[in-house]
Design goal:
The complex is a heterodimer.
Chain A lengths: L4 H4 L7 E4 L3 H12 L4 E4 L16 E3 L15 H12 L5 H20 L4 E2 L12 E4 L3 H14 L3 E3 L2 E9 L2 E9 L2 E6 L3 E3 L8 H8 L7 E2 L8 H8 L4 E2 L5 E7 L20 E3 L14 H4 L2 H7 L6 E6 L14 E3 L2 H8 L3 H14 L34 E13 L2 E2 L6 E4 L2 E8 L17 H20 L1
Chain B lengths: L10 H17 L8 H6 L6 H10 L5 H4 L13 H16 L3 H9 L1 H21 L14 H30 L6 H13 L11 E2 L6 E2 L1 H30 L10 H26 L10 H23 L6 H18 L6 H17 L4
Antiparallel strand pairs in B: 1-2
Helix pairs in contact in B: 1-5, 3-5, 3-14, 5-6, 6-7, 7-12, 7-13, 8-13, 8-14, 9-14, 10-11, 11-12, 12-13
The chains are: A alpha/beta, B mainly alpha.
The structure holds flavin-adenine dinucleotide and iron/sulfur cluster (2 copies).
Chain lengths: 468, 364
């Protein structure tokens, strides 16, 4: 590949330039290459970190009318759509949503045919065995399989290639400006698919959107999704969807790395614990619902506390009730010591727990279902799994908000085509997180991110191939 | 309960593997690749003996390295195949009796080569000094009696030493009394190299980065089955000799030859294949320290099988005495080094598979 200097790359004859190197980008590249198009992938990460957030995933949500591959039973369009409506509270585009859901069924065999392998639902996630197909080895194995398939189809891939500008002349894309290992290049192509994810790794942008507290957020995925292309397109009058101020955040282990901590930093202890803030005070009902349903609200709850930090406290009775954590909990023989070890007032912690313990009532504890074991006369209450915290040693985890993705994206139609305020672009399509706001306006449905990326990646690839 | 062996000099590797295993236990993405991950997921805390058992269960298929989102330079620095390989390797050295010899041959290909030369020398000397007055075939150069006197202890001593090691292993990992069903289970896993099939038959990641292939599995089984055939050939010879007074040399359509020749060919191809693939595989996903020793061991096996085949082809020619000395010298070195070379992996692996069958059954 010749990419040296601005002039020599001008006539490389790329039919399609794909911006990004995650799931959506790869699906588009593979489909276009299979139609005989000459495809170039520009991935801003170095090879070891290729694959964006897709390499952190574990499954995708798939409609099916009967048992399909590793999926049990059936999961039909209406149920899927209802699930989506529940989490987004209606903030979705029904036409695009139903299209995504229906297409998801065709995705699974296509994925298998292009090297992806599935495994039965992971231990501890049985509840998903009907709706979500798990990737053998996780998302990075999926990404590897797609890169191998793309390579066999002759797709060219450049790593360390950050696209800085997608050039539009009226309604037509003509070239990208890209920085490859510190050197500026201009590469021309007949069409472009934008699949460069959200902007959550740009902490300045995140702070501008959310407020100064976002500086304390941890980013669960790749540091390379900085929204450069999204910003560039919005600056060129591309139409946007999704709330620009919002991001999806969950409560994760406060000791996680700033970026790329991924799945292992999640903490499943909250329902069996009480959660206090920096001042040792409780602030929300820890037992509101089973954890998968409540997982997502705790990011916001913790983000609203002073210094965006929370502390989940359990005693030895509860230690084995949830998935093991990646870092060992802080451990102490008394609550006072535990508080000090966590860096909060031991006195306050002890007081809060004494009040909580006094509000606990006898009853039967059931870790796997809503057991109705609730506190009495406590504010806020704990409405399930409320057992006294009284059996040393005591354990504590620090919680911080961990951002999964941002909602702001490019508006597309059902052919994945990008629109500007003056109408659709002739040769630019978008897929994956960069356009997911069209369908997922709010909340999150486990496994839906990969579904959107696969469905729209394939559509974008097909449309781009037809155009060239 | 598995033993705690924190006070041993090998615990650094165990600690590193434990650190990684605990990360995997919070992740579980690799659950479908092999038996190691389900074994991890059954537990929350890992004693030293547990880590040693996991290490011997791992077949180094490398699937979990290429699939891992946390490989270096990520700060979690996952490289589970290498971490478990280090622990596994050290367990063989630590549990070898006598311990000092263990490390030497594992690490140094040169030492292994020296042992081979010593094996040659012994055989040439024996043949020079104790040349029989009469005898047919090989026995014309070295009498049956001398062969028995040399090779019986050379075979039994290593087996005894390995037995002692395995007992120590079993104690360390907290193994339970073995039932027949567990053995059957382990034979089945080993017979198909189930833990090298990637979980779905796609094979392992070895010679070509993150691409899967069954080449390594096939070559390995050629060596394994070739070795078993060669072993059966020798055993059948022994039985024919003592049980039926049928003495060597045997013709091509005799049992020892029908088993031995294909066995030798399989071993030759298998070892050559393994050595070739080892050259293109990434050293750092294994125990890099013993790369040389492992290579030398493969070469030794190759030489044993090749010299055996050549000896058969040379029947009746003047090359027989030389080839006989070379072949028997190599066999001698191979036998004596069994407890102290890569060969021991088969025994430990088998023990680990038996233990895994027990734990899957819910035995303590
Ligand atoms: C920890 C974690 C776990 C998750 N688990 C799941 C799950 O199990 N199932 C699920 O469906 N979803 C999951 N998600 C969400 C899922 O990761 C995303 O929805 C999905 O990966 C989006 O795919 P994508 O291809 O659009 O973006 P990505 O996979 O993030 O790819 C974006 C690509 O663009 C590149 N890029 C960015 N900017 C530029 C630029 N300027 N120039 C060139 N390249 C650029 C990046 O390097 C990257 O390769 C998870 C997210 C996280 C963080
Ligand atoms: S090797 Fe990596 S991806 Fe696999 S289970 Fe362990 S941490 Fe997860
Ligand atoms: S290298 Fe292969 S056998 Fe070993 S733990 Fe990883 S996946 Fe399992």
């Amino acid at each position: 590949m010749r990419t040296k200097g601005h002039t020599s790359v001008s006539n490389d004859g790329w039919d399609l330039i794909v911006v990004g190197g995650g799931n959506a980008a790869l699906c588009a590249a593979i489909v276009a290459a299979e139609s005989g198009r000459k495809v170039l992938i520009l991935e801003s990460a170095p090879k070891v970190y290729r694959g964006g957030n897709s390499r952190h995933t574990r499954n995708f949500r798939c409609m099916h009318q009967g048992p399909l591959s590793v999926l049990t039973d059936a999961y039909e369009e209406d149920e899927y759509f209802d699930d989506l409506m529940r989490v987004t509270k209606g903030v979705t585009d029904e036409k695009l949503a139903r299209l995504t859901i229906r297409e998801s069924e065709k995705c699974l065999p296509w994925m298998e045919a292009h090297g992806v392998r599935f495994q039965p639902s992971l231990s501890g996630t049985l509840s998903l065995s009907r709706t979500n197909a798990f990737f053998l080895g996780g998302g990075k194995a999926l990404v590897n399989a797609y890169y191998n398939t793309a390579e066999e189809l002759g797709v060219a891939v450049v790593y360390d290639a950050e696209v800085r500008h997608v050039h539009l002349e009226r309604d037509r894309f003509t070239y990208v400006d890209v920085n490859i290992r510190g050197q500026e290049h201009r590469i021309f192509g007949k069409s472009a698919v934008l699949a460069s994810g959200g902007f959550q790794a740009d902490l300045d942008w995140l702070t501008r959107a959310w407020g100064p507290s976002a500086a304390n957020f941890l980013i669960r995925g790749t540091p390379y999704n900085r929204g450069i292309v999204l910003r560039d397109m919005l600056d060129q009058q591309a139409e946007s969807v999704g709330d620009p101020t919002q991001c999806h955040a969950v409560a994760i282990d406060g000791r996680a790395p700033k970026f790329d901590g991924g799945i292992v930093t999640r903490l499943d202890c909250v329902p069996f614990s009480i959660v206090v803030n920096r001042d040792g005070e409780r602030f929300y009902d820890e037992g509101e619902d089973v954890w998968p349903k409540r997982y997502a609200i705790w990011g916001r709850l913790v983000a609203a506390q002073p210094e965006q930090v929370g502390y989940s406290i359990i005693d030895s009775k509860s230690l084995d009730l949830f998935m093991p954590s990646v870092f060992p909990p802080v451990k102490a023989d008394t609550l006072e010591e535990l508080g000090e070890a966590l860096g909060i007032s031991g006195n306050e912690l002890q007081k809060t727990i004494a009040e909580y313990n006094a509000a606990c009532r006898p009853g039967t504890f059931h870790p796997t279902e809503l057991d109705g074991l609730a506190t009495e006369g406590l504010e806020p209450p704990k409405t399930n799994w409320a057992r006294p915290i009284d059996t040393p040693p005591y354990y504590g985890y620090t919680l911080r908000p961990g951002v999964t993705f941002t909602y702001l994206g490019l508006k597309v139609d059902e052919t994945a085509r990008v629109h500007t305020i003056s109408g659709p672009l002739a040769n630019v399509w978008a897929a994956g997180e960069i356009m997911a706001g069209s369908i997922l306006g709010q909340g999150y449905l486990a496994g839906f991110g990969m579904t959107i990326g696969t469905v729209f990646g394939r559509i974008a690839g097909k449309e781009a191939a037809n155009h060239a | 309960m598995p033993e705690d062996i924190t006070l041993n000099p090998f615990s650094e590797a165990i600690d590193e593997a434990r650190r990684q295993v605990e990360i995997c236990n919070a992740c579980r993405y690799c659950e479908g690749f092999c038996s190691v991950f389900p074994a991890i997921n059954r537990q929350r805390a890992f004693a030293d003996g547990d880590i040693t058992q996991l290490a011997n269960l791992c077949h180094n298929c490398r699937g979990c390295y290429y699939a891992c989102q946390y490989v270096p330079p990520h700060e979690f620095a996952l490289n589970l195949p290498a971490a478990l390989n280090d622990v596994r390797q050290q367990s063989w050295e630590r549990l070898a009796r006598p311990q000092a010899i263990g490390r030497l041959f594992h690490e140094r290909g040169v030492a292994l080569a020296a042992a081979l030369v010593a094996g040659f020398a012994v055989l040439f000397a024996l043949m020079a000094v104790l040349q029989p007055e009469s005898g047919e075939g090989f026995y014309a150069y070295l009498s049956h009696g001398v062969m028995v006197v040399v090779f019986t202890p050379a075979f039994l001593f290593p087996l005894f030493a390995i037995g002692v090691s395995l007992r120590a292993y079993w104690r360390e990992i907290g193994g339970a009394p073995v039932r027949f069903g567990h053995l059957v289970n382990a034979v089945r896993s080993a017979g198909r190299m189930r833990n090298l099939d990637g979980g779905q038959g796609q094979g392992c990641n070895f010679e070509d980065g993150d691409r899967f292939s069954n080449r390594r599995r096939v070559y390995h089984q050629m060596v394994l089955y070739g070795f078993l055939l060669a072993f059966a050939s020798t055993s059948s010879g022994t039985i024919m000799h003592y049980g039926f007074a049928m003495e060597a040399p045997y013709g091509f359509f005799s049992l020892p030859k029908m088993l031995g020749v294909p066995g030798g060919i399989l071993m030759c191809i298998g070892t050559a294949g393994l050595a070739y693939m080892k050259m293109s595989a990434d050293k750092h996903l294994g125990s890099a320290r013993v790369w040389g020793g492992e290579m030398a061991f493969i070469a030794l096996l190759f030489f044993v099988s090749l010299s055996g085949l050549m000896l058969y082809m040379a029947t009746g020619t003047a090359a027989v005495p030389t080839l006989l000395a070379l072949h028997l010298g190599a066999v001698l070195a191979f036998f004596l080094l069994m407890p102290y070379s890569k060969m021991v992996h088969g025994f430990f692996r088998f023990a680990a598979l038996v233990r895994e069958a027990q734990q899957r059954d819910g035995m303590p």
